[in-house]
């Protein structure tokens, strides 16, 4: 049987080292070879149905300097494309920027909430619905995860099943009801060390957002997130291997 192939949708500027690091991280957490993921830059590539030709699944990563609230035609197109993909039956897992884009594309609301920004490692809680979910069902009631966001969903569309929350962010994960589509505000593709590396890359921005001393303290406070880091492997096993690890 041929190995499943994936499209990885990204919104990152040329030269951003997180572009390749994200590619490698998604592949590593799913347990697949990096060459089975084809990166697509949503900022320069028109998103049409043919974008997914040859792909068995879709992954959506972060966005570096971009927000789903930016008034850019490419981002509006991206939100609509994800909503259409979510109803197509193609397995999809989206993190952070992709999570927010799905919320908007499916009719929800996203706000900028700098006072509730989460950058680093945080504790999250599962909802009652998570226990019955094939991907989230093995998570403990409380688990650690890697985060890096200041935008967050404020209204979740009714077609989404709420799966996790944190003290600062009510909506941390969801599944599209009846579809093999999951999304997380957090980053299950990143280990704590990888999230530290990303934090360092954006330290000037975080220094402005939190203050330099607080940003350094957050950098130093990262810790492992083993349960969250298994979610992509569970997604792969459930959708492409007919099992849940």
Question: Could you walk me through the main structural features you see in this protein, from its secondary elements to its overall organization?
Answer:
- The protein is α/β, with parallel strands linked by helices and 245 residues long.
- It has one domain: Rossmann fold.
- 30% of the residues lie in helices and 24% in strands.
- The protein has seven helices and eleven strands.
- It has a nine-stranded mixed sheet with strand order 2-1-3-4-11-10-9-6-7, sandwiched between helices. A two-stranded antiparallel ribbon has the order 5-8.
- Helix 2 packs across helix 3 and helix 5 crosses helix 6.
- The two termini are 20 Å apart.
- The mean pLDDT is 95.
Key descriptive features of the protein:
two-stranded antiparallel ribbon, alpha/beta, Rossmann fold, 245 residues, 30% helix, nine-stranded mixed beta sheet, 7 helices
The structural class is alpha/beta
Largest sheet: 9 strands, mixed
CATH fold group: Rossmann fold
| Helix content, binned percent | 25-40%
Helix tally? Answer: 7
Question: β content, as a range?
Answer: 15-25%
Order of helices and strands: EHEEHEHEEEEEEEHHHH
| General form | globular
The CATH homologous superfamily is named Class I glutamine amidotransferase (GATase) domain
Subunit arrangement of the protein: single chain
Low-pLDDT sequence parts: none
Chain-wise SSE layout:
Elements lengths: L5 E5 L7 H13 L6 E5 L15 E4 L12 H14 L5 E4 L1 H9 L3 E4 L5 E9 L15 E8 L1 E5 L4 E6 L7 E4 L4 E4 L7 H10 L1 H8 L1 H9 L10 H10 L5
Parallel strand pairs: 1-2, 1-3, 3-4, 4-11
Antiparallel strand pairs: 5-8, 6-7, 6-9, 9-10, 10-11
Helix pairs in contact: 2-3, 5-6
């Amino acid at each position: 049987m041929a190995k499943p192939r994936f499209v990885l949708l990204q919104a990152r500027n040329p030269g951003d080292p997180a572009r390749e690091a994200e590619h490698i991280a998604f592949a590593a957490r799913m347990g697949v070879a990096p060459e089975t993921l084809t990166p697509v830059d949503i900022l320069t590539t028109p998103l049409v149905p043919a974008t997914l030709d040859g792909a068995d699944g879709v992954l959506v990563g972060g966005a570096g300097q971009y927000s789903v609230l930016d008034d850019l035609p490419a981002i509006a197109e991206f939100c609509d494309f994800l909503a259409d993909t979510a109803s197509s039956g193609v397995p999809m897992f989206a993190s952070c920027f992709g999570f927010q884009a799905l919320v908007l594309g499916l009719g929800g609301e996203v706000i900028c909430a700098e006072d509730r920004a989460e950058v680093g490692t945080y504790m999250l809680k599962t909802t009652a619905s998570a226990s019955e979910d094939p991907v989230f069902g093995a998570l403990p009631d409380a688990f650690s995860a890697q985060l890096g966001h200041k935008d967050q969903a404020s209204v979740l569309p009714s077609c989404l099943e709420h799966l996790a929350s944190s003290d600062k962010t009510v909506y941390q994960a969801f599944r599209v009801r009846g579809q093999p589509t999951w999304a997380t505000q957090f980053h299950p593709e990143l280990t704590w060390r990888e999230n530290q590396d990303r934090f360092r890359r954006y330290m000037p921005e975080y220094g402005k957002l939190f203050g330099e001393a607080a940003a350094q303290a957050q950098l130093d406070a990262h810790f492992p997130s083993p349960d969250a880091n298994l979610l992509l492997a569970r997604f792969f096993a459930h959708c492409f291997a007919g099992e849940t690890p």
